[in-house]
Backbone:
């Protein structure tokens, strides 16, 4: 009888330990999923900030280069696509298009010495450069969070407990696009 009670007690401890481990793993996956969402929010915030700067930049350039309407329209359309994109893949594609059109806009600015000296333009250009850096950092952090989360739902024992959790998408450049596709602008 004493051995039976000890055995039952040992089994209860093992079951409780396993239950705590299962809860810990499941909670870890949920926490990692929330980190992915939070990091995505950081990207979204920086892309929004960048998109908010663009109308002012376009207006400033437009004052000096009114006949460059095609580029202004292209930038506005690319910005609109970014604002309406929902998924990380859609945002990445729209961001690539916006980056390319901004590069062309800044190349137009290169042809206008008075514009390059305009304080509003210089300030907006600096703010845009700072935002680009923040976007790059946010993308890196997001992709690191996605890697950690995806690994936790695909590796053992998390894979046994990750029912209902879907893999997160990385924030990548649009297929076929790379840094060489974006025009270089020098001031």
Residues:
């Amino acid at each position: 009888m004493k051995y039976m009670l000890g055995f039952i007690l040992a089994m209860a401890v093992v079951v409780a330990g396993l239950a705590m481990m299962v809860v810990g793993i499941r909670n870890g996956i949920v926490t990692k999923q929330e980190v992915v969402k939070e990091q995505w929010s950081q990207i979204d915030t920086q892309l929004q900030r960048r998109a908010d700067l663009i109308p002012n930049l376009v207006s400033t350039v437009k004052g000096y280069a009114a006949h460059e309407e095609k580029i202004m329209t292209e930038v506005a359309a690319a910005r609109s696509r970014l604002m309406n994109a929902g998924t990380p893949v859609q945002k990445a594609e729209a961001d690539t298009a916006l980056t390319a059109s901004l590069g062309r806009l800044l190349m137009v600015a290169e042809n206008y010495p008075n514009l390059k000296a305009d304080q509003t333009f210089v300030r907006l250009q600096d703010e845009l450069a700072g935002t680009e850096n923040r976007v790059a950092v946010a993308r890196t952090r997001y992709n690191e969070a996605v890697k950690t989360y995806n690994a936790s739902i695909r590796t053992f024992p998390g894979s046994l407990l990750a029912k209902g959790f879907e893999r997160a998408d990385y924030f990548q450049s649009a297929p076929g696009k790379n840094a060489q596709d974006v025009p270089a602008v020098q001031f």
